[in-house]
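Technical annex B. To support the medicinal chemistry partners, we prepared a structural model of the target in complex with adenosine monophosphate, based solely on the information shown next.
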Amino acid sequence: MKPKITKTKKQKAEKKKKPVLFQNPKGMRDILPDEQMWWNKIRRVVDEVAEIYNFSRIDTPILEDARVFEAGVGASSDIVEKQMFVFKTKGGDRLALRPEGTAPIMRSYFQNSLGRFGQPLKLFYFGPMFRYEQPQAGRARQFHQAGFEIIGDDDAVYDAQIILAVFRLLEKSRIKDLSVRINSIGCRVCRPVYRRKIQDYYKNREERLCRDCRRRLGDNPLRLLDCKNDDCAALKEGAPILLDILCGACRGHFKRVLEFLSEVNVPYILDNYLVRGLDYYNRTVFEIFSDYGEEGKPFFTFALAGGGRYDYLSELIGGRPISAVGAAVGWERVVELMKKNVKPAAGRERSQKVFFVHIGDLAKQKGFGIMETLRQAGIVVSESLGKDLLKAQMRLADKEGAAIALIFGQKEVFEDSIIVRDMRSGAQESVPLKDLVEILKKRLKTSV
Ligand code: AMP
């Protein structure tokens, strides 16, 4: 009889000390293969909307000189103050992982004299952004935004066009119950008047404000309206309203934006306390939400998209005055809602797929060449060459939703033929190898 081996405490501890597998950084996740179909859909929708509304793509680096954001977004904004990933390179440059896409585009506008491409210049982008936040559902440290910018014109029609493009983009992504909340935060003429009114209002309520708001009261009092702290949010209810104080020009501009939105039937709600936390905004600001949910409770209380006019950004980063307006859509939030709304259809690529089944070594070798011929002809071929059992390969062909299985064995090798099996009906026929590409192309076209 074998002696029973009992593990000592030391052995047990050593077992526990097994090297830990590495994890992704907090708040930054992998987008796995089974999610890619949602992301592909989003990219297609972004491209489609960009094309319809005539926006050209721009890609800026993921890293920027940190000063682009400090000057543009504002040193006292949450993004710069708390959320930016900043580091020094070996060469001593201070770089930031971009927390947003607009300031880099304005940097590029000047650096590359993009004004030569026309006024206004309509640009769009799609890519990862980084903010050091406390991760939670709908809030990550690495997330993706698609953004649209119209640079070089202050006409209210462009504010409306940006809102319209983003609204359509969300609609095309099948997001239900969209609501656009909109406000005007005025200009250099009327905003200082409002700032003073806000400061007066909060002055004798200061002790009820959170620590951050007390600090902001002096240098950035509009931000108090943006605070999510319960006490601050309650105090906001009685605060003065900016729309009452807007100068004539801003009032007229805002009225036109709303008229243009009505013209294209984009519904909106006036939100008197919407200010957005970035320094570069003026006049129109907006956010888009989805009220879609269960039992009257929306799945998401966060905005899906946000934006506004930013006529002062160009000067903030050292350039000449250029009017502009833009918006960004956060894709993680959109994907979450899409998953709730849309049943993943067996997409076109999937039902158009051909699965290659081999029987025996020689068929595997010759089959390797046949598959290459098919792929060169643009046919999507899937296979499991590591498996030899016919049954296992057929099961996979079925699981992958292939439209057609090609069965290639010893007999077919010698006869220069191959069996073409329709995976839906189960009907199959032997065809000459030389006709295979043509036959498959015909069959796949009719099986869409
Ligand atoms: P913002 O300019 O900060 O309003 O961002 C525009 C959009 O990006 C938001 O409406 C969100 O959809 C998305 N977004 C912003 N921050 C995050 C984040 N930390 N995680 C996920 N999505 C975000």
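Notes passed to the chemistry partners:
Residues 49 and 242 are 33 Å apart (CA to CA).
The two ends are 66 Å apart (CA to CA).
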